[in-house]
Structures
1.
Amino acid sequence: MTEATAPSVFLVDDHALIRSGIRAEIASAVHLVGEADEVDAAIELICERRPDVVLLDVHMPNGGGLAVLEAVTRACPATRVLVLSVSDAAEDVIALIRAGARGYVTKNISGPDLIEAVQRVAEGDAVFSPRLAGFVLDAYASSGGGEVDDELHQLTPRERQVLRHIARGYAYKEVARELGISIKTVESHVSAVLRKLQLSNRHQLTNWANERRLV
Amino acid sequence: MTEATAPSVFLVDDHALIRSGIRAEIASAVHLVGEADEVDAAIELICERRPDVVLLDVHMPNGGGLAVLEAVTRACPATRVLVLSVSDAAEDVIALIRAGARGYVTKNISGPDLIEAVQRVAEGDAVFSPRLAGFVLDAYASSGGGEVDDELHQLTPRERQVLRHIARGYAYKEVARELGISIKTVESHVSAVLRKLQLSNRHQLTNWANERRLV
DNA sequence: GTCACAATCGGGTTGATCCCTGAGCAGGCC
DNA sequence: GGCCTGCTCAGGGATCAACCCGATTGTGAC
């Protein structure tokens, strides 16, 4: 597990160019054991070859990056996943950490830094872009460290239902008519959702839902 | 202009890894004359070195890809811009063609195909991913060839800027602070956008922008 | 110079949204 | 029977959003 030499790495990205770039930058320092450009092949090959580290682009069609991450952490927990992303939004990062990622770096990282990140993840460290470390620590601190329940999970079924309508752009009155309840009840649910997710208005809620593909 | 040999290419992308990947794939067949990772440097260097082709990632912070494209087509029309993107949404493509792009390929293109695309653009051809060619032709055909008004194109630059902020969930007051203008001015711009796009509220605007990947 | 238009602001109105404090009712649990 | 939670609703106040009216400045076209 603790190779002081070259860690084995599996590469997942749907863009051939980006795979090529990563390969060119890190091939000298790691042992590339495979690549994949889509979800199913990635999961199958990773479980077969059991690399030390999976370099995973989360920005894949149908939110597939998350699917790969979950499958890998479930099927072979010894393999650590280092997420590559273009986004540095705090919500994204936290969701991925919850799903089992051991590191998160944005794609504007330099080649040498990426090599170091891969090696550190292979050795068991958690690696984050400096700007993101604060977010991650905050998230863990505020969650107690143990039963990390996904933010969506703390919403009641009715609240999730109202959330979906709001995220689609319905006005309160329309949601009320749609669900056959009073406007005041819709208000109550929305307030509860905003409070639980620590957001301040329904526009942020729309974006929150979009990022999570709840629409 | 018509080099049967290696065309000169300038590379613009804010991600070092992607630049590295493109470099590795095409360096053998073209003459790379420079790179840039942000808007101002890109415009300056391109106008100075006058490459045959600019390989441009449109997906840059603050919508900077479009700024580079507009500056280049204005300042040195002899230089042709080939757009690289992760998006294959028809609206995006059409907007870029309108802004002067001579080609548009997605990042899942293969190395050899990218080389061929660069060479064809350098020779004056227009190059599109097969799936996109239909959209482009439709857009030109249905417009009679002349006053093609893409919905996004009838917005002024300032309106597009405000639109992006609104779509991200900012309140009017936050947009005003961010852009250093009055709330009333933000209101004016939003009203103009809603009127031009024939929408009735900012929720629809958010969804409109999300569908077009403007966020 | 005139005209159009983009961009900048203001006052004022109406409805929607957000937040707070309540409240009643049903169902599950001890 | 108590207790908790989820769902339902109401009143009222503060804020925001959308639209109406108006205005000035600057730029570029004719």
2.
Amino acid sequence: MGEAQVNSQAAKFLESLAVESSATRFNDNCSNCRLGAFCLPLALRHRELDELERIVQRSQPLQRGQHLFWERDEFQAVYAVRSGSLKAYQTSHEGHEQVTGFYFPGEILGFDGIGTNFHVSSAQALETASVCTIPFDAFEDLSQEMPHLQRHLMQLMSREIAEDHQLIALLSKATAEQRMSAFLIGLSSRRGRENLSATKFRLSMSRIEISNYLGLTVETVSRILSRLHKQKILKVDKREIEILQKDVLKETAGF
Amino acid sequence: MGEAQVNSQAAKFLESLAVESSATRFNDNCSNCRLGAFCLPLALRHRELDELERIVQRSQPLQRGQHLFWERDEFQAVYAVRSGSLKAYQTSHEGHEQVTGFYFPGEILGFDGIGTNFHVSSAQALETASVCTIPFDAFEDLSQEMPHLQRHLMQLMSREIAEDHQLIALLSKATAEQRMSAFLIGLSSRRGRENLSATKFRLSMSRIEISNYLGLTVETVSRILSRLHKQKILKVDKREIEILQKDVLKETAGF
DNA sequence: CCCCGATCTTGACCTAGATCAAGAGCCTGA
DNA sequence: TCAGGCTCTTGATCTAGGTCAAGATCGGGG
């Protein structure tokens, strides 16, 4: 019996036990999560971490295009991205899709639902992505006993507010070129935070999604990328991006 | 005497109260604050309210133009508006002022500072305004013992996030007319929430401030107001606004 | 009371980016 | 393997709203 066949059978077996497989393959814990320091930069004691551990759920990775939650879904949890990436978006009733954010490993999404008890945006995986589910009720109870945790959560929400304000300023006055530059610089610095190459990476979102985030049209996004490529500020090959002159990009971003 | 007239008189009475209270009664306590149910819609027990009371500080009203806090100030408190109105804004380093929000009685501002421990926007009174200062450390300690309070705070932050997302969608795709309509509808419904006339009011912000909020120029704001006036959708007399056809406005706002 | 600077309005013109159109790579599933 | 539908690019044209300019109006200080 060849090894390939063994693997294929093993895969089938795991599939048939989807729930169990999620239990066996994604049950790493918070203490040894390589994002730990970034996702929860708290001086958590061991006992506290154990408690947090107890409530966090890890499930099967989402496939590209799959939704984590939908607008109007009841709010039950916030989600920490473990790997891959997602977008959050709202659909205006004329059908325009407004992307409100992209989320990468270590970032948390779903806060929009706390206020109204249902989500006001949808979240969709841009590529295979795994997330930790943090049931909110349990989290709230837990944070009653752990001041660190409570403060941290608020810091995360506050940071989201601050980032939104950045985006608002961008959409309000910046030119198409400034928007694209700021966007790329943002992606780059988030990559850096993950200790991945900050100059060379693959876009997980389409030009359309970028345009719906930056308040531009696909054509404009495409044109600007072409221009930056011609100017040798970027190397653009389909979704592969290499930033050649970050200083220039930062300059035009002007933020 | 028609009912409309009665309502309008009641509204005028309440308005006059608001002015008086800002001038003379700013040291009332939470239990008898007429905004109580709106600002803190919690099922707070008496004892809890007393505790909250203990940490909230009420100071002299701010005069028009005075700042509540500045960008880069150390974050120490969040603020509940008692009367009057304020704007929050950031200044890009090319000098453009981006207004990120207007705040009216019962609304809370200052959340942007929690994440970084210093404010990332400035807050300035648009007219005489009184606020309650809620020192954040004390508030956090208090909310450790009061789950209601903690959840409420997060709801307020979450709501701010949701509102920001609305603004983002607006700035991203809406026409100048849609932006103005949405803005006016927003003001109107907030007035309604305060039990003041939702159709007739005075703008506390200048055209310039509106334009810096909506991502337009003063000229455009002015032109659109003139147009809406000519079309008899609004009555505009300097800063006095009367909404004549709210349905039309809502229609064009499309939200 | 008038004066001065800020705010607001209106008109004429211009431009960044939208829209329309067409074609070239692509994945994907039959 | 190919067909059909995406995504992406590039060009030609159009237009909403920005920019510039000139007054009008308002409000606060002397």
